[in-house]
Design goal:
Distance between the termini: 29 Å
Largest sheet: none
Radius of gyration: 18 Å
Structural class: mainly alpha
Shape: globular
Length: 252
C-alpha cells in the first residue's frame, strides 16, 4: 500500500502543472537570490568597510524585503511562491505538499540559487561572492538556534498570510512575508547573516567554494520551519484549509 501511494504521489509530481510549478520556483528563487547576493556585493563595492557599516545591513534588509515580496507574488498562483527550502519543508511537514513534490521544489530552488550566484560571478568579472558566516563570538549551536527562530517567524508568516480567514487581507500576504524577512535580517544580520533560506546560503557557498558552518543554515531553518507549520496547523488555528501549495495540487 505504501509503495503504491508513493508511486501515485510521484506521478502527480511530474504532471505538466507540477513542472510549471518547478519552473516558477526556479525563476522566483533565481531573482530573489540574485537581488540579495547582488545587494551584498554592491554594498561591498560602494563601502570600504561594509562589514561594520550599519547602512550596509539596512541595504541588504531592504533588498530582502523587496525581492522576497516580489518573488513570492510572481509565483504564488503557480507554485505557491515558496522561494525557500525551509518553507517547502514546513509545508511538507504540515501535509500541504507531498514529499516527492517537495524534493523537486528543493532541486529547483537550489539550482536557481547556484545559477544566480554563478551569473553574478561571471557578470562582475569574478568578484568575490559573499557567503553567510557566523560572528566570531557565536557558536554553531547558537547560530543554528538563531536561524531557526528566524525561519520560524518567516514560515509562520507564510501560513498566516495564506489563511483563508484573512479574506481580502490575504492579498498583502507577499508583502507581509517580505517585511518579516527584512525585519529578521535587521535583527540577526551581524550575528548569523540572517539567511533563513538554505538555498540562498548553499548557492553562494557553492560558487564561492566555502562551506564553513553550512550546517547552521540547514539544521536551524528546517527545524524552525517544521515547528512553525505544526504549531500553526495543530495548535493556534487547527483544521484550516490548505496554504501555499497542497498535497493534492500546486498553488494557493
Amino acid at each position: 500500500m505504501a509503495p503504491a501511494s508513493f508511486a501515485a504521489r510521484f506521478q502527480k509530481s511530474v504532471t505538466p502543472t507540477s513542472l510549471r510549478a518547478y519552473l516558477a520556483e526556479f525563476i522566483s528563487t533565481f531573482f530573489y537570490v540574485f537581488a540579495v547576493v547582488g545587494s551584498a556585493m554592491a554594498s561591498r563595492k560602494l563601502m570600504s568597510d561594509s562589514a561594520t557599516d550599519p547602512s550596509s545591513l539596512v541595504l541588504v534588509a531592504i533588498a530582502n524585503t523587496f525581492a522576497l515580496s516580489s518573488s513570492v507574488y510572481i509565483a504564488a498562483n503557480v507554485s505557491g511562491g515558496h522561494v525557500n527550502p525551509a518553507v517547502t519543508f514546513g509545508l511538507a511537514i504540515g501535509g500541504h505538499i507531498s514529499v516527492p513534490t517537495a524534493l523537486f521544489y528543493w532541486v529547483s530552488q537550489m539550482l536557481a540559487s547556484i545559477m544566480a550566484c554563478l551569473l553574478l560571478k561571471i557578470a562582475t568579472v569574478s568578484q568575490h561572492i559573499p557567503t553567510y558566516a557566523i560572528a566570531n563570538e557565536m557558536t554553531g549551536f547558537g547560530a543554528s538556534m538563531l536561524e531557526g527562530v528566524l525561519a520560524f517567524a518567516l514560515v509562520y508568516t507564510v501560513y498566516a498570510s495564506a489563511d483563508p480567514r484573512n479574506g481580502a487581507l490575504g492579498t498583502i500576504g507577499p508583502l507581509a512575508i517580505g517585511l518579516m524577512a527584512g525585519a529578521m535580517v535587521l535583527a540577526a544580520g551581524p550575528f548569523s547573516g540572517g539567511s533563513m533560506n538554505p538555498a540562498l546560503a548553499f548557492g553562494s557557498a557553492v560558487i564561492a567554494g566555502g562551506f564553513k558552518n553550512q550546517a547552521v543554515y540547514w539544521v536551524g531553518p528546517l527545524i524552525g520551519a517544521a515547528v512553525a507549520g505544526l504549531l500553526y496547523d495543530n495548535v493556534v488555528f487547527p483544521g484550516q484549509a490548505s496554504v501555499r501549495g497542497d498535497s493534492e495540487g500546486i498553488g494557493v
